[in-house]
Amino acid sequence: MLLFFQLGGGYLFGLPVGFVADSIGATIGAGAAFLLGRTIGRSFVVSRLKDYPQFRSVAIAIRRSGFKIVLLLRLVPLLPFNMLNYLLSVTPVSVGEYMLASWLGMMPITLALVYVGTTLKDLSDVTHGWGEFSKTRWAFIVLGLVISVILMICVTRVAKSALDKALAENEDIDDIISPELPIVAEASPSLNQPLIIKIDSAEDSHEK
Questions:
Q1: Are 72 and 162 spatial neighbours (Cβ–Cβ below 8 Å)?
Q2: Are residues 177 and 199 in contact, defined by beta-carbon separation less than 8 angstroms?
Q3: What is the arithmetic mean of pLDDT over 115-127?
Q4: What's the pLDDT at 128?
Q5: What span, in angstroms and rounded, lies between the C-alpha atoms of 108 and 102?
Q6: Which of 15, 118, 160, 183 has a 20 to 30 Å separation from 9 between CA atoms?
Q7: How far apart are CA 48 and CA 66, in angstroms?
Q8: Any idea what the Cα angle at residue 76 is, between residues 5 and 11, rounded to 5°?
Q9: Residue 121: which of 3, 5, 17, 10 has the closest Cα?
Q10: Residue (of 64, 62, 1) closest to 30 by Cα position
Q11: DSSP 8-state secondary structure symbol assigned to residue 77
């Protein structure tokens, strides 16, 4: 759904305005889902954690460097975008770090999609006889699309490498987590107090 909104922003408003509008809109939407998951939607998020086992290592990494991990997750499609907003709400990352990291991390894909939307608008104008392209204009369009694809591939690869490295640094901790990530769902009146993810070591488990 977000994909169509971003393409539509470029199609309707052009590159500068479309990029700003889509960037702000996507960040606000992600923030709303995050706050919903941290408050009244908490029980729903907890119930869905078991469906995303790969999120266990992400939650652990965020305990050490929340801003960095959220930023990388926005650059790398490790989890579905909409569900990621809710899952991140049960981690210790603050609202401010989450919003800033999400805004910055979504910029590359937003810019690329808005550019594609703008190009589609230009092509539509030509098709309907509302505009005309010179060979130079065609060259710039093709070059822009090629550069956008290459940049997105490069950014994604670099971000994925950094994310894999960050998650690998927590493998030792992840190995001692029980199969079901224990969740302590304590009610909290403050949005800055996230759901606590309790990690019990294997040694503690044997003692109990």
A1: yes
A2: yes
A3: 75
A4: 61
A5: 11
A6: 160
A7: 21
A8: 20
A9: 10
A10: 1
A11: -
Structure tokens at 55: 């999120």
185 — pLDDT class (breaks 50, 70, 90): very low
Note whether 114 and 145 are within 8 A (CB): no
**CA nearest to 170, candidates 194, 197, 204:** 197
Average pLDDT, the chain: 76
111 band by pLDDT with thresholds 50, 70 and 90:
confident
The domain segmentation of the chain, as residue ranges, is 2-175+182-200
What does the alpha-carbon distance between residue 89 and residue 194 come to, in Å, rounded to a whole number? 7
Q: Is 197 helix (H, G, I), strand (E, B) or coil?
A: strand
161 touches 54 (CB < 8 A): no
C-alpha 94 chain-centroid distance: 15
Tokens of 160: 């994925």
- pTM of the predicted model, to two decimals? 0.71
Sign, CA torsion 145/147/149/152: negative
Contact 120, 92 (CB under 8 A): no
Q: What is the rounded radius of gyration, in angstroms, for the C-alpha atoms of the chain?
A: 21
Query: Once rounded to an integer, what is the mean pLDDT over residues 125-145?
Result: 69
How does 30-62 read in b/e, with b if 16+ C-beta sit within 10 Å? bbebbbbbbeeebeebbeebeebeebbbbbbbb
